[in-house]
Amino acid sequence: MIYKYVLKVKDLQHIDMPKGARILTSGIQGEHLVLWAVVNVAKATVRRTIRIIGTGQEDPKPNAPHISTVQMGVLVWHVFDEGEKEI
User: Each residue's pLDDT tens digit in the chain (87 positions)?
Assistant: First the structure.
């Protein structure tokens, strides 16, 4: 299944999602920054760490996969996946 998660525009946040979810992308839907992922709802829930940084800001965690770059008006956000942890 593909699920959508609404993100907050802040440096670091945690999203609860099924373990091993495959993040597809993030983008703007209406007025919200959202993330889409392929999930297996039968899997245990884990906490995924998402980092959003603006152009010119400090780099994310080393080797954090880049999810997407999103433009909101004049602002540009770079969204990274810093991995999952058991909860």
Answer: 999 999 999 999 999 999 999 999 999 999 999 999 999 999 999 999 999 999 988 877 889 999 999 999 999 999 999 999 999
User: Would strands 12-18 and 32-38 be described as parallel, antiparallel, or unpaired?
Assistant: unpaired
CA distance 56 to 63: 18
- Using CA atoms of 20, 61, 68, 40 in order, give the dihedral in degrees to the nearest 10: 10
Identify whether the C-beta of residue 71 lies closer than 8 Å to the C-beta of residue 40. no
Output the pTM of the full model. 0.92
Reading phi first (left if > 0) and then psi (alpha if -120 to 50, else beta), residue 20 is in left
Residue linked to tokens 């699920």: 3
Which of helix, strand or coil describes residue 79?
strand
